[in-house]
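Protein fold
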Amino acid sequence: MNYFLRKLGFYAIALWAALTLNFLIPRLLPGNPVDILLAKLQQRGGIVTAETRRAYELLLGGNSDLPWIAQYWDYIVNVFRGDLGISVTYFPAPVSEVISASLPWTIMLVGIATILSTILGVGLGAIVGWKPGTWLDSLVPATTLLAAVPYFWLALILVYAFATTWRLFPGQGGYDVVLDPGWSLEFIGSAITYGFLPALTIVIASIGGWLLGMRNMMVSTLSEDYILTAEAKGLRNGKILRSYAARNAMLPSIAGFAISLGFVVSGSIVTEQVFSYPGIGSKLLTAVTNNDYALMQGIFLYITLAVLGANLVVDILYGFIDPRTRARS
C-alpha cells in the first residue's frame, strides 16, 4: 500500500509542477495575444481604444493589473473548471472546444497506430530474440533503417506511391468533405480510408524500435536461470516462450508503451501536417505559428495530463505484475 501511496503523491507533485510551468512559460514568452487580436481588428477597419484593449484583456484572461500570485490562482481555478481561455487563431472559440474537436481524430489515428506498432514490434521481437542468429535477425536492420528515416520523407514516399501513382488512398484530409461528420457507416469508412496512409507512416516508423528493444531483452532473458530450469523440466518451447521468456522480457516495453500512449495526445505533428490531417498536432503547429498562447497552453496541458496519467496507470500495474518492484520500493 505504501508503494501505491508514494506513487500517487509523486504524480500529484508532478501535476502541480506541470501546471505551474504551463502558467509561467506563456507569460515569459515575447508577444501578447491581445496585441494580435487588436492588430486583426485594425486590419478590418476597426477602431482600437483603451476600453477595447481592456475588454480584450478580460476576455482572454490577461488581466495584467493583478499580481502574478492572483493570476496564478485564477489560472488554477479555471483549469479545474475546464476553462482554458479563448483561442486567438479560432477567435472567439474557446480553447476547450478547439481541442475537443481535433483530439478524437488524433486519438483514433495515433492511438491505433501506436497500439498496432507496439503489438507487431514486440511480437516480432520475441520471435526474433527466441532464435538469435537466424535469418529472422535480418528484420532488425531493415526495420531499424525504416525507423531512422525522417517522418516527412516516409510520408511523402507513401503519398507519391499510394495516392499519386496508384491512387489507392487519398493523400490529404481526414474524410470526404461532401459527407457530414457523424457515426454513419459511410463517414466511418471515409475516415478509415483517409487515415490509412498516416497510420501506416507511424507504424512503419515506430515498429523498428519496439522490435529491436524486445529482441535484445529476449536474448538477455534466455540466459536467466529460470529459463534453464524450465527447459530442464521438459516444458514445450511454446510454453517457455510465452510464460517465461516473453512475459519477463516485455516488462521494459510496458513502460515504453505507457510513454508512447501518453504522447498519443500530442499527435504526430509532421505526419498530420503532410497529410493535412485535422488532428491535435496540426492545431499545435497553427497555434505556434500564430502565437496563440492560450491554445498552446491548453494543448500542452492535455499532453501533460495524458503522459502523467498513462505513466501512473503503468506504475500501478507494474506493482501488481512484478512484486519485486514493490519490494525494492
Observations:
- The CA atoms of residues 26 and 293 lie 6 Å apart.
- The chain has a mean pLDDT of 84.
